[in-house]
Every structure is written in C-alpha cells, then in structure tokens.
C-alpha cells in the first residue's frame, strides 16, 4: 500500500487528525495554493460535544458523525486517507503510517487526545471510556445490556453491581453523561422496566478535585453540583479512584463502590506519534510548540489543539485548556501563517480568544460562563442547544438533531435504546490494520510518493 | 440467572422471536387473558424489508430497529427477556435458554431464519451476510473500508478484488442491494472518490435459478433484470456459486470472479432449536406444523412464520413462501386460536391471503404483483415507499425515514457513509452470552419459575 497521491507543483500539507482543529485548518487552506492531505483513523469527523447524547441513547451516532469525503466533496487538491501515523522522519520530510509512507512539505499534528488510565491495567481493561463515537455506542450497549441482566441476574449482589453506575471524572463530559443518565433513570427506566425499581438504579459521579467543571467558574461548578444532586446523582468530590477489581471501584481512601457500569472520563493524554518523545513532550504528553504552533526545533512541523501545549500565550502560561475553541482558533491562524511562510512574510503568534464555555446537565439545566457573565438554568440551556445546533455540520443533520431534541423534550422519551453493534465490522477493521501493517516495509509503494 | 417472571393465575405464553410473526402475535394477545413472555436475542424488533437501505448507507440502523421494551411500554402481564433458546423439554413444559430455564403453558417458536451457507466453510467465513441490522452495518463498513483501501492498495489486482462487488442470490434482498449499490456507484462514488474511476466499480448479481425474484411473476423478474442491467449491474442467471478462495468467487462451471466484497443473500435456513430435529423438520429445516401452526404431536407447542412449514393450505401444498405477510397472518390467527383453545372451542385452520409482493430496484424503479395486476416503474415505486412507510413503527421513525427518503431523492446523496462500529460492544455481548451459559446448570434460579 502507499499513499498514492499525485505529485503537484503545489506544496503538500499533511494534516494528521480531522477533529475541530484539523478540520478548520483544512477548510481555511481552501484555495490557499496548497495540496492538502487529511489523514484520520476514522473516515468521519466526530462532533464530540454531543457524544454523551449518543452514549445515553438520546441521539443517533450518525447525527454527530460526518464523513470527511462528503465534507470535502468538490474540493480540489484535497486528499483523504484512512490511516494511522506511526512515526515521523523529519530529515526526510516523511511520515510512516499504517498504509505506507508519505512525504510532506508541511505537516500538522492535530490528532487530539485519548483516555488516560494512568497506567492502571485493571481500569484500562474494565472501565468504559467515552472519547469517541465508537466508545459512546459501546457504552450505550453496555448500559442497556446491564439493565437487561439486572432483571434476570441470580443474586442481589450482582444486581447491585449492574445497577450502580459509577462515572469517574467531573469534567464537562462526566457532568453531562451523569445528567443524561439520571434523566434516563427518571423518565425512561420506569416505563421500559416496570419490573425494576428505579431507585435501585444508582448514579455516582466521582471527582478527584474539589469541584466539578474545574475549567469553569466556581459559580458554574456549584450550580452543576446542585443540579445533579437534585436529579439524584451522588456527587463525590476530593475522592481519587485508585483501582478496579472484583467488580468494585476502589477509592484511594480504601472505600469501595460495587459496579459493573464503570464509566471512565477522568483524564486524557495526547495521542502519541511513535518517535516524538522526551523534551518534545510537555504536560499530558502534549507536543510542545512555539507561539506559531511550530514544534520546537522544526521548521515545517506543527501541532495544534489538544495534542499540543503552547506556553507563549501570556494569559495561559501553563498552556491552554483542551477545548474545541482553542483548536479551532489555532487551526484558523495556522492556515494564515502557512500562507505567510510561503510568501516569506512574518507569522502571527497565537492568542486565545475565550468565547466562554458551557455545559448542560439536563433539560432546562445548563451552566455557562461568558466572560464575566455567569448563567445557569433554562436560558443557559437554550443557548447551549442553539450554539451546538449551529455548529453541527449539514442541514440534514441540523434538522434530524432538532427533531430528536424537540421530540425528546416533548415525550421525555428516547427511542434509540438498542443494544446494537456492527457484526463483522470490527473484524474487518482489525484485518484492515493488520494487512496494512504487513505492507509496512514496502510502504513507499508507488513512485508518485517520491520527491524529485 | 433465571427468567425471574412472577407466577400468575393467567396461563403463560412464551413467544420465541420478535420478528413480524412474534410481534403480531404478542400484540394480538393483549387483553386476551394470558401472561405473555417475549424472548429474543436482540432487544429490538428489526424491520427487515429496509435492511438493504442500512447496508447501502441510505438509512440509520436505528430507523428500522425498535426496542421491544418501548413497543410494549404500559402493556400489562408482558415480559421481555434478552436470551437465546437452547432446547425444549416438552414433557416438563420447559425451555432451556442462555439465561436459564423457563416454564410455559403455551410456547410459540417465531425465530425466523438465518443465512444458509450450504455447509461451505470458506463462504461462511468470508462472505458478508445481510440477514439482520448488525450484519447490514457490518456490510456497510466493509464496503466503505474496501473503497478506502482501493484508493491506496498496492496492486491493480488487489484494487480489482476490492472494487468487484459480487452479490450471490437473486431474491428480493439481492435485487434491492444490487440496485442500491449501483445508485451509490452512480450518484455518490464520483463525488466522494474523485480519485476513483467509477467504472472500476463493478457490481455483479449471481443467481442459481433461471430468473430473479423467483417468488414473483415472470413479468416482475424480467422488469427487475432490465432495471438492474440498465443501471449497470451485471446479472448472471443459471450460475451456481460453489466456493470462495483466494479472494475469488468460484462458480460451478469453474469460472472465477475476483472479489473481496462478497455479499451472500443466497439462501436461508430456519433457526434451530437444539433438540427439535429429524421428522419434526421439513424443507429448509423448517419446523413442520399442522393447519393450526401446532408442532406435530404436541398440544401446546406452536411455530409460525419462516421458522415453520405448513403444507395443509391447499393453495400452498409445498408450504408458504417465507414472507412477512405469512408470518403476520399466522401470528394474528394463532392469537385467536389460543383464546379458542382456552375456551375449549374449535381452532381455525390457517389460509394465507396473498396481499401481493413488491421489490424496489432504485428510485422510480420497483416491481409489484398485486393479484393479477403486475406493475413496474414509478407508480410501483411510490406504492412501495408508501406501504413500507406505513408499516414502520412509531411516528418519530416515520418522520425520520421520510426525511431521509425525500432528502436522498432530492440530493441524490446519502450522508451516512460511516465506517463505524461500537467499540467494546461486541466484547460485552460475547461476555453476556458466555457468562449466561456459565449459569446454565443452575438455570432454574429463583423459585418463581417453578410450577406448583
């Protein structure tokens, strides 16, 4: 296999990862005189802010997933490649990937982050992560399968384990999934499981820090906690999870919580590029970049978004928060800077413009910090809906998502409670990757990858 | 584990399988004075007539999948159990399942059929079946992954294998998926894969018999073939597939067709109940039943739909065609007959009322036989849409499906081309079944399953 991309008089920009940052960069490079190659391990962009809706059976996976090839239809000098990057050879301007090697003039790493299990193998094996659409579907399936088992399981102990949902991590994702599941408990479980006492379903949110939504204002944290507790969620603060064994979450202080519905949204670590390490990485394994998002010591290697850390922005001496907005703004600026580079002009340093942040806890319940303005309740929630509906790609998806929301709002009922998975799909994907790797050595493949 | 169903003064009817027949029966038994237990290996009903739409990325899997617990919300004396039936012990009125044993007063097998690979292990391993929503999602993923690979694969030979789509089986499913994929080739591939010459994508439909849609009129068969060939599908009749090896479909006459997109919709065999065999089974391993759909020699064991064969209907001496309508009508009558049995009245024998059959080949292209009336083209297609939209459960789903259809009709573009699978989901389901089986011996579980 090879990248099989035609040579061009234009300089080639390879973008690794089609998240918020990579997508924005690719969009802004339209007509900028580059040949753009987008590499992603999935063939679709994921709208992660709504992922908890998929996990809680409130939304179609396809409503928040957008095929790259559709997004970039009719775009000229653009190429999508379904692949994983393995390593980089800067002195040859070459990357090695699961489908062979490719050469670049500029390369931008925008692959984001993955779940951080802090090296605990038990947690890695048993916890259910929620970092992408696939995992969100897996979580939905696991929860529903556990409900079904709880109805017929042999012992009270097993039943308690199945119906205790423990969410570890009090960030936006943890707060949002906790809220969504408590609504499922309130509005759906009694109707779907008349045999089940909904009070047997226990949702617990564990946060190691002293407050939820640490990235937001004290006020927002406080409101989120109050909202969740009013909805019956048990919120544990200043409690660190140390292990998971015998169907029990083990806390640092020795206390245990029995559960087989163990959701892990507690931390992230930047996606690794095989041979970028050591000094090149900062906190959270993020690639250290300068004020132009350029990797230290490199002239044509860049990194944006969650995968990088930039300490040159006065307002953020310890690096920016890992938010979509940061990635989007970095992608936008980098597009301009690449053009400047080509034109031999000065690049502009990155300054993050905080547009505020919000999190939703449930219907009519959200918290938002817009500069000095701290909002919560119905208005913040309506704003949250609006902002996210606006950002979803495609008119069709906007319509479908809106219908879903209106429908769920009126009926208090989701209709996507399916334990469903693509049979053979996983095998196919695994085989893809296996076979691709077998091509590794001969990665160069067709000559059109070679440079003159 | 155990079925964990409360004893009741009412007689218990266990329905195995929530397809068209089982679902109709369960619905019609409402208020009939029975305790109804529905057992299915999935937690949702599947609307199989539209499954090819899922496989061709034209429709959400969730648009044709309906959670049983939602369908039967508020229904009293009804219980759903996620389980697989392993065997039956008639003299104890007991079944053994993946979650333990359960006792019945009446049991109805309505588990339908599964793909028939005619004992060929190569075909079983490599062919992509399309008998349920999971498999349809797997097919979609496999096709899209193959397109991606075709863009970067190393050799022309591999590329040809990836872009040759071979569909084996010229029944309604084969005709419909062939039509849908040829539309994808015409309308989607050129936009999504500008790098790919759409003429490299070759769709071939192989049928062992002398005509397509053998169950319909000669006229319908002829029109379907003409439609497909006009859409660029190569239709091979009177050609039997004997094997699959080295990425090649091997025909009985020795000819081979290279392909890695090998779709198998060529035959079905009834789902087996462990210890029902021998004389009890007829053609296609279907359970032989009398005119009341009662299993031969049994007083309280029944079978309906595709899983059974009934030769007592004068018009169908060799058994009924395996169609949704037959299952639905048998389910409807059996509900009445069970009531009659309880009342000590005579049961009514089953007579199939043919409401006609239809198949769609593409936009504005369908064939329909309604009694003596043979239709094809736009009107038949519009009727096909109407009939199927009517039969889809739930207003929300009707709306979503309609939007999808209208959208695709106007834009000639699907937006669901996602290689997506539920991570960890398969592992979860496998573990469920494994663990369930470990409970096997102790299946009786809680005493409430025992009879006085």
Give a short summary of the structure:
Two copies of one chain form a homodimer. With 452 residues, chain A is of the alpha/beta class. Chain A has helices at residues 20-28, 51-55, 68-71, 121-126, 133-152, 156-163, 172-192, 218-230, 324-343, 378-391, 395-411, 425-438; strands at residues 11-16, 34-40, 44-46, 65-67, 78-82, 85-89, 94-97, 100-103, 106-109, 113-115, 128-129, 164-168, 202-206, 234-236, 241-245, 248-251, 256-258, 261-264, 268-270, 287-289, 301-303, 308-310, 357-362, 365-370, 373-376.
Characterization of the model:
The structure is a homodimer of 452-residue chains. The first copy, chain A, has 452 residues and is α/β, with parallel strands linked by helices. Among the domains of chain A are: 11-41 and 83-115 and 269-342, FAD/NAD(P)-binding domain (3-Layer(bba) Sandwich); 121-266, FAD/NAD(P)-binding domain (3-Layer(bba) Sandwich), CATH 3.50.50.100. Chain A contains twelve helices and 25 strands. Chain A has a five-stranded parallel β-sheet, covered by helices on one side. The longest helix of chain A is centred in the middle third of the chain and has 21 residues, at 172-192. Chain A is globular, with a radius of gyration of 23 Å. Residues 436-452 of chain A have low confidence and may be disordered. Chains A and B meet through strand 4, strand 5, helix 5, helix 11 and helix 12 of A and strand 4, strand 5, helix 5, helix 11 and helix 12 of B.
């Amino acid at each position: 296999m090879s990248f099989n991309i035609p040579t061009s008089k234009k300089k080639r920009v390879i973008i690794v990862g089609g998240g918020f940052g990579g997508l924005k960069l690719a969009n802004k490079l339209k007509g900028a005189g580059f040949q753009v190659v987008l590499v992603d391990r999935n063939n679709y962009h994921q709208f992660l802010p709504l992922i908890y809706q998929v996990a809680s059976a409130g939304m179609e996976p396809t409503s928040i997933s957008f095929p790259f090839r559709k997004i970039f239809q009719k775009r000229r000098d653009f190429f999508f490649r379904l692949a994983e990057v393995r390593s980089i050879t800067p002195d040859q301007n070459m990357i090695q990937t699961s489908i062979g090697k490719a050469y670049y003039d500029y390369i931008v790493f925008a692959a984001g982050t993955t779940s951080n299990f802090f090296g605990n193998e038990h947690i890695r094996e048993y916890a259910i992560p929620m970092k992408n659409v696939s995992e969100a579907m897996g979580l939905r399936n696991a929860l529903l399968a556990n409900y079904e088992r709880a109805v017929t399981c042999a012992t009270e102990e097993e039943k308690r384990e199945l119906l205790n949902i423990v969410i570890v991590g009090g960030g936006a994702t943890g707060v949002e999934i906790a809220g969504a599941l408590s609504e499922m408990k309130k509005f759906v479980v009694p109707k779907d499981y008349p045999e089940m006492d909904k009070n047997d379903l226990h949702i617990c949110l564990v946060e190691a820090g002293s407050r939820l939504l640490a990235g937001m204002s004290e006020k927002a944290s406080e409101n989120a906690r109050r909202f969740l507790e009013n909805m019956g969620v048990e919120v544990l603060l200043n409690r660190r999870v140390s292990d998971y064994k015998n169907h029990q979450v083990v806390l640092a202080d020795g206390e245990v919580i029995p559960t087989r519905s163990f959701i892990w949204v507690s931390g992230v670590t930047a996606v690794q590029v095989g041979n970028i390490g050591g000094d090149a990485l900062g906190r959270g394994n993020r690639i250290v970049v300068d004020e132009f998002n350029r990797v230290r010591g490199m002239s044509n290697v860049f990194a944006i978004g969650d995968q990088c850390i930039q300490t040159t922005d006065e307002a953020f001496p310890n690096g920016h928060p890992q938010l979509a907005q940061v990635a989007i703004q970095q992608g936008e600026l980098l597009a301009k800077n690449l053009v400047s580079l080509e034109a031999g002009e000065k690049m502009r340093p990155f300054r993050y413009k905080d547009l505020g942040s919000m999190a939703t806890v449930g219907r009519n319940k959200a918290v938002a910090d817009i500069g000095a303005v701290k909002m919560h309740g119905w208005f913040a929630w309506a704003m949250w809906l609006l902002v996210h509906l606006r950002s979803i790609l495609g008119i069709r998806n906007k319509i479908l998502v809106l219908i879903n929301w209106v429908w769920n709002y009126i009926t208090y009922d989701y209709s996507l409670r399916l334990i469903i998975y693509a049979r053979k799909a996983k095998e196919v994907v695994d085989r893809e990757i296996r076979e691709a790797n077998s091509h590794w050595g001969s990665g160069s493949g067709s000559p059109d990858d070679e440079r003159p």
